[in-house]
Amino acid sequence: MEFQNTREFAQQLDEQDELYKYRDEFFFPSINGKNVIYFTGNSLGLQPKRTKAYVDEVMSDWARLAVEGHFYADKPWWDYHERFAIPLSGIVGAKPSEITVMNTLTVNLHLMMVSFYRPTAKKYKIICEEKAFPSDQYMFQSQAKFHSQHLGINPSEIIVEIKRREGEHNIRLEDVLAKIEEVGDEVALVLIGGVNYYTGQVFDMKTITAAAHKTGAYVGWDLAHAAGNVELKLNEWGVDFACWCSYKYMNSGPGNASGCFVHEKHHHDTELPRFAGWWGHNKERRFKMEPNFEAVQGADGWQISNLPILSLAPYLASVEMFAEVGMTKLIKKRNLLTAYLEFILHEIDKEIDGTEFEIITPQNQEERACQLSVYLHGQGRSLFDYLMKNGVITDWREPNVIRLAPAPFYCSFEDMYEFGQILKAGISK
Question: What are the protein's UniProt keywords (predicted)?
C-alpha cells in the first residue's frame, strides 16, 4: 500500500478498519478537552468500558451471598479462573489444560523456576538476553545467588547474557543460537523476553526453543510484551513454561494477575518439584482437607492460593473481548498501523531540517509487533514533555528514546497522522 501523510488518507484507512468500532469500547484520558493519542499500551492498556460490569457483578454477588458466592454466584468464585483457559489458550497458542492465572508476573517466573531451573554441578547456567527488563535481571541474580550456595559456584558464573554486537541495537538470532551451542551441556535454562521491552524486538521463539532443547535445557519465555501482541504457538513450539502480565496489551488494569503456561508434557511428571498450596490440590478432593498434596492435572496444579476474584474480573472482561476478535485480525491491523506510524515518522523527519529519527526496532515485520522505539537524535526530554502536554501519552527511556505502541484495539490511523503533526510542531517551536 502506498501511504499518504494526510488526514483524509488516515480517515480512509479508519473507514476500512473492521476493528475501528472497538475504539468506542475503551475509556480515554483527555488533555485540553480532547481524547489523548495513547501510545503506552505496552505499559498499561486502556480500561475497557465493559470492565465495570464484570467488577460490579462480583461486588453484587459478595453483597448478596457473602461466602456462598464461592459456589452460588452467577460465575462461582471457586472455579472463576477456569473461564480463562479457552480464551487465553487462543491468545498464546496452547491447550486449555496448559493455562492458568495466578499471582503476578515475576512471582510466577520465580515459581516456574522452582520446577524448571534444577541446576547441578555440571548443568547450571541460565542463558538470558542482555538488558532484559530489570525485574527479570533481579530475578536471575537472586536465583543465582540462592543456588550458588548449594552448588559451590560463584553466582556470576551462572548467568550468561547474549549481547548485542557493537554499534547494533538488536540481538541477532545467529548470536543467540551460537551462544546456546557454545555453552552446550552446561545450559540448564534458557529464559528470554519474547519481545524486548526497550527495542521492541520480537525473538524467534520457535527456533530458540528448539536449539535450547537440543542441549537438554528447559526453555521459558517472559511474554510480558508478547501476550496479546504477537502470534504465539507455545504448545506447538514445545516451550516448557511461559508467564505474562495482563495489564499491557490485555488491558486488565494496573498490576493485575499474571497468566501462566505449562506444557502438557510436564503435567503428569510427579517428580517435578513445585511449591504447592491448597488451590493446586485435586479439585474434586480439595475440601476434604487432606494432609498430602495431590496436584490438579494441568497448569492449575501450579496454583498456590485461592484467587483474587476482584482482580480477575477485569481480566475476564478483556480476554472475552480478545475471543470476540481473535489474534489474526488484531495482528493484521497491528502490522498496518505500525507500518503507517513508521511512514509518518520518516515523513516528518524529511520535512524538518536538522532532525534525525532512528527507529531502533527491527524493520523486518517478523521481528517486531506494536512497538516502535525511536532515538530522537538532536532532541531531548523537552520534546517528550511537549508531546505529553499536547495530548500524546508516550514513554520516555534514557538517554533519548521514546517508545510508541499503537495498540490495534483502540488506536486509529488518524491518531498516527495527528501524532505526526504534533511531533512536527514540537520540534519546530
Answer: Hydrolase, Pyridine nucleotide biosynthesis, Pyridoxal phosphate
Q: What's the domain range around 156?
A: 53-325
**Is the distance from CB of 18 to CB of 329 less than 8 angstroms?**
yes
Q: 221 among the known binding-site residues?
A: no
Residue 330 assigned to a binding site: no
Residue 346 annotated as binding? no
Cell representation of residue 366: 517478523
Residue in 90, 86, 66 with CA at minimum distance from that of residue 77: 66
The reply to whether 80 sits in an annotated binding site is: no
Query: What is the CATH number for 339?
Result: 3.90.1150.10
Residue 106 annotated as part of some ligand binding site: yes
Does 353 show up as a binding residue in the annotation?
no
Query: Do 15 and 411 meet the contact criterion of CB atoms below 8 Å apart?
Result: no
Ligand-binding annotation for 272, yes or no, is no
Query: Are 209 and 224 in a shared domain?
Result: yes
On whether 394 is known to bind a ligand per the annotation, the reply is no
Q: Report the side by side order of strands in the sheet with 401-404.
A: 356-359, 372-377, 401-404, 395-397
Closest CA to 334 of 247, 272, 416, 418: 416
Alpha-carbon distances, residue 163 vs 169, 291, 358, 382, 426 (angstroms): 10, 48, 20, 31, 35
Q: Kindly state whether residues 32 and 135 are assigned to the same domain.
A: no
Query: Is the residue at 1 inside a domain?
Result: no
Q: Rounded to an integer, what distance in angstroms lies between the CA atom of residue 38 and that of residue 412?
A: 10
Answer yes or no: is 135 a known binding residue.
Answer: yes
Say whether both 192 and 84 belong to one domain.
yes
Q: Are 331 and 320 in contact (CB under 8 A)?
A: no
Number of structural domains (the chain) is 2
Residue where the block lists cell 535445557? 217
Q: Are residues 123 and 111 in the same domain?
A: yes
- On whether both 135 and 205 belong to a single domain, the answer is yes
225 annotated as ligand-binding: yes
Q: Is residue 321 part of a domain?
A: yes
Residue 134, marked binder: yes
